[in-house]
């Protein structure tokens, strides 16, 4: 379990490009009057990209990157409240380094030796993130509104297959 990085749309970084790891992208949550209680969009600072060196694993079928695409899955990575008495109590943190341990904890709860391939076998077990972009313009223009930096239905590089709906995805 590794974070995809916090540099926006850029070249994919190591170790997130390694085929045997789960690369975790980031999302933002906004309170909403819907069944879920909030909407979820791509975190603008979460990294995504196409590896220049690591071969595309069989589980990935995205069209514009012939090598490994990052990320695989995502979780909230912005305005996450943490408590640390030494730092004066509650404060907000951000980063895919917050999202990755969250996903790792979910995997730990399941304890079934699931692999990264398992994520791609159960798309119905994820919230499909379909809004937002992580390019420097924040609009998707830097990548031609392509899935490599812009959230779209199904797999996209900033959020992978989406954020898990409970433990069923694992």
Report on the structure:
The chain has 170 residues and is an alpha/beta fold. It is 12% helix and 26% strand. The chain has helices at 96-110, 116-121; strands at 2-3, 23-31, 38-42, 49-55, 67-70, 73-76, 80-84, 89-93, 126-127, 163-164. The strands form 4 sheets. Strands 1, 2, 3 and 6 form a 4-stranded mixed β-sheet that branches. The chain has a two-stranded antiparallel sheet with strand order 4-5. A two-stranded antiparallel ribbon has the order 7-8. It is globular. The mean pLDDT is 89.
Tally of DSSP β-strands: 10
Q: In angstroms, what is the radius of gyration?
A: 15 Å
How would a crystallographer describe the biggest sheet? 4 strands, mixed
- How do the helices and strands follow one another from N- to C-terminus? EEEEEEEEHHEE
How much of the sequence lies in strands comes to: 25-35%
As a percent range, the share of helical residues equals 10-25%
Oligomer: single chain
DSSP helical segment count: 2
Low-confidence stretches: none
Cα-to-Cα separation, first versus last residue: 13 Å
Mean pLDDT: 89
Q: Shape, please?
A: globular
Q: Which structural class should the secondary elements be placed in?
A: alpha/beta
């Amino acid at each position: 379990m590794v974070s995809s990085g916090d540099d926006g749309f850029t070249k994919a970084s190591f170790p997130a490009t390694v085929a045997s790891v789960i690369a975790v992208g980031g999302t933002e949550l906004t309170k909403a009057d819907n069944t879920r209680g909030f909407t979820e969009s791509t975190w603008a600072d979460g990294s995504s990209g196409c590896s220049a060196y690591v071969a595309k694993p069989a589980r990935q079928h995205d069209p514009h990157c012939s090598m490994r695409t990052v990320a695989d899955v995502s979780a909230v990575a912005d305005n996450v409240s943490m408590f640390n008495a030494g730092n004066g109590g509650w404060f907000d943190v951000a980063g895919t380094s917050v999202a990755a341990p969250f996903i790792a904890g979910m995997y730990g709860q399941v304890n079934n030796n699931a692999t990264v391939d398992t994520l791609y076998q159960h798309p119905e077990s994820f919230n499909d993130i379909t809004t937002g972009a992580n390019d420097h313009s924040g609009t998707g223009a830097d990548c031609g509104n392509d899935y490599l930096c812009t959230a779209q239905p199904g797999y996209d590089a900033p959020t992978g297959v989406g954020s898990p709906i409970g433990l069923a995805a694992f």
